[in-house]
Amino acid sequence: MRRLLLALPFALLPLAVAHAHDDHDHDHGTLGAHEHGVAKLNAVLDGNTLELELDSPAMNIVGFEHVASSDADKAKVTAARQQLEQPLKLFGVAPAAGCKEDAQELESPLFGDAAQTDEDGDSHEHGHAHAHADVNAHYQLTCATPGKLTQIDLGPLFKTFPQTQKINVQLIGPNGQKGIEATPAKAVVAF
């Protein structure tokens, strides 16, 4: 039921950024279907609940998209997963908002997850050897004083994963919904 909170509004939200569309269709003929350096973030503030859903090519997070076989690659995957498990260090939210993590879900073929399927049953696994791997992170936070949460600073996320050059952000909050393009130089997004 919680996923509905994210899924419904974003299905209706037109983004100003032309190439920011659902990249689960993996249409390789379309620019932006899986673009290295570009991630997507959905952020919903509903009452005292803040939900964040990050969808990024694995290249942005660990520097490669193949299943880790070498010790060095396995170490990169382990380190990236540990960083992703700490959303309050990746997403800068006002301490006055009193946000605490309630739940998280991390998915990626690099984490040893099996082929993933969407709610509509589409498989994310490709039948060819040069499959694109994504990292999906979903966080649910409860904020004691949500009125103090007026923006999210993505600077820590850009610093932690420097291969991420742009994040197409879709925000839904008390002031409505909007699409914003965040970059390391313009990393703060306001609700």
TrEMBL record:
Top-rank taxon, per record: Bacteria
Keyword Signal in annotation: yes
Signal sequence segment: 1-20
A UniProt-annotated Pfam family: ZrgA
Classification via InterPro entries: ZrgA-like (IPR021253)
Keywords: Signal
Name this polypeptide is given: DUF2796 domain-containing protein
